[in-house]
Structures are given as structure tokens and as C-alpha cells.
Design goal:
The chain folds into 2 domains: 86 residues, no CATH class; 204 residues. Helix 1 runs parallel beside helix 3. By secondary structure, it is α/β, with parallel strands linked by helices.
Length: 317
């Protein structure tokens, strides 16, 4: 019995069913209330690995039972009205009133704010963008005449932006100050980015729960690295450089990557209880896939995927 496929199918049915009920206004489901419980899926994945090693049908049934019970608890937790949240969550989810000011840029909690790094007179050879934060929705909105700008909305947490140039390397660090939190009344934190199209970018993201939507097809991106927990990623890579590296490490995530048909693409996977959809790619061996034009293409994208209980999709456009 393909227990891992059955379990992933149940999870997708659960998520799809909840979204459908929300769209028809049958229920109000508070995703912010259940994000912090994502490690339970790692426990379920561990049980499945242990039982599958012995090819035990009873063990597979136990894993499925634990999964169904866990999803039932998460569903009950998600439909609870927000005024009951303090009965379930610890103090890390209470509004942070510590006025911690930064010498660079500081975001006032609960308000909108804008951060900006000016375009340097002489462009650095490398531009590194480090992003960190949890409980946040990050979206790339387009181009800017500055080097980089960020706008925060509905945030209950402070942010800072630091811009440093050392040895022809321009490093931007945009990070959340303190622990991540969700607004009890408004949901999560929203951050919109604008990036200049001239530099060659290296993007590194480190976050817990959250969402990332980046269309990087018109930017010169040498590398994109993501290390996170429970997240949803929708990333589009372009073909403006000869080589691009994409590395994604997740716990529980829905990952969608899009690469141009004009580039050769190689995918290396190291996944546990994960679903993979690499339509149009050739499987060379376990954990290794290539596009049909990989050998002949002068431009290449190398993708490395590492996840526990995730859904990985790579499409060509």
C-alpha cells in the first residue's frame, strides 16, 4: 500500500475542502491559528517512515489514523473564533509592546511603513539580499529606481533594513525584529518588495510560516535560497544569466517553481513524505531529473529540493 501517497492525498483533500468551504462562506477558518502546529506533520512523517521500513499494513493504518486525528484537531482549532485565541496560544502571540528602536530603519508596529536603499553610484559586483521573518506574506511587486524598497502592511512586528558594502559586495538585510506574530484582528504581516533590475542578485530567505510570491523572470538572479518551515512558495526564474541556482529547504510546504523552456534544468531532490510534479522532465535516477534540452542548452538552472512533508512542483513556461 502506497501509504505516503494516500497520506498526501488526504492532506490535499483537507486543504482543498477547507478552502472550498471558506469560498462559499460556510466556515471562517483562521489559518494563522494552526500554522504553529506544523511540526505535527514531521511526527506523522516519522511514524510513516518507521512503519514503511517494515512494510507493515497495520503500521500504515496507524499512520493514517494519526493523520486523520491530527487534521481533525487542526480543523477544530482553525474554526475557533479569534476571541478564544489566548486560551490556546502562549505569550509569544500577544502584542509586542517593547519599543526596540534601530539606528537604521524601524517600523512602527501596527502601521504601514516604507524602507528604501538608494542605488549606489558604482554598482557592486554582487548584490546580496537577505530576508528573514515569520508569519509573513512576501510579494515582489515590480521594479524601482532605488536599489531596493520594502513596504510593510498590517504588521504587528517591527522590521529593519541594513545596507552594507564591503569588497564590491552590496549586502541588504531586511529582517523582522523579535519573534514573529499574527495580528489577532487582521491576520498576518504583508510585505511588498520592489527591486532594481540592473544588479546581479543573490537572494537568501529564512522564515518560519509564511508565503512568498516572487516573479524574478525580468531580474538577473544568480541564486535563490529558501530555508523555512510551513510555507507556500510561488517562484518564477528567468534566463538573463548563464547559470542560476535555486535551493529550497522546507518542513511542510507547497512549492511551485517556474523555469523558462529556453534553459536546461536539472532537479536534485532529497525528500521524505513529499509529492513531486516535474512534468516534462526525465527521471535519470532516484532524486535526479533533467529537462530534455539540458545537455544542449547554453543557459542552465540547477534546482535542489529538500523537504519533509511538502508538495514540490517544477513547471516550464
Amino acid at each position: 500500500m502506497k501509504t505516503d501517497r494516500i497520506m498526501w492525498g488526504i492532506i490535499l483533500l483537507f486543504i482543498g475542502g477547507v478552502l472550498l468551504l471558506e469560498n462559499f462562506n460556510i466556515i471562517d477558518f483562521y489559518w494563522s491559528s494552526v500554522w504553529r502546529f506544523w511540526p505535527i506533520f514531521l511526527i506523522i512523517a516519522g511514524l510513516n517512515i518507521l512503519f514503511n521500513k517494515n512494510k507493515s499494513q497495520m503500521g500504515g493504518a496507524i499512520s493514517l489514523g494519526v493523520l486523520i486525528i491530527a487534521l481533525g484537531v487542526l480543523f477544530y482549532r482553525g474554526i475557533q473564533p479569534r476571541h478564544n485565541e489566548n486560551k490556546w496560544l502562549d505569550k509569544s502571540f500577544e502584542p509586542n509592546i517593547d519599543m526596540d528602536f534601530d539606528d537604521d530603519h524601524e517600523h512602527s508596529r501596527g502601521k504601514e511603513s516604507r524602507f528604501s536603499a538608494p542605488l549606489p553610484d558604482v554598482m557592486a559586483k554582487r548584490t546580496v539580499l537577505n530576508i528573514s521573518g515569520g508569519g509573513t506574506s512576501f510579494e515582489l511587486k515590480g521594479e524601482t529606481d532605488s536599489l531596493f524598497t520594502a513596504s510593510t502592511h498590517r504588521s504587528r512586528t517591527g522590521y529593519s533594513l541594513v545596507n552594507e558594502t564591503v569588497d564590491s559586495v552590496n549586502t541588504l538585510t531586511f529582517k523582522m525584529k523579535g519573534k514573529s506574530s499574527w495580528s489577532v484582528n487582521e491576520g498576518g504581516n504583508d510585505v511588498d518588495f520592489l527591486m532594481n533590475k540592473n544588479p546581479e542578485w543573490e537572494i537568501h530567505m529564512n522564515m518560519g510560516a509564511g508565503e512568498v510570491k516572487f516573479d524574478l523572470s525580468e531580474y538577473k538572479v544568480r541564486s535563490f535560497n529558501f530555508d523555512g518551515g510551513a510555507a507556500a512558495l510561488d517562484i518564477r526564474i528567468g534566463d538573463l544569466l548563464p547559470i542560476a541556482d535555486v535551493t529550497v529547504k522546507t518542513g511542510v510546504a507547497d512549492v511551485k517553481l517556474n523555469v523558462p523552456e529556453s534553459v536546461g534544468c536539472r532537479i536534485t531532490t532529497k525528500t521524505g513524505l513529499s509529492a513531486k510534479d516535474f512534468n516534462g522532465f526525465t527521471k535519470l535516477k532516484e532524486g535526479l531529473y533533467e529537462s530534455p534540452n539540458y545537455a544542449s542548452s547554453t543557459k542552465k538552472v540547477f534546482i535542489k529540493l529538500d523537504g519533509g512533508l511538502s508538495n514540490f512542483e517544477v513547471h516550464r513556461y
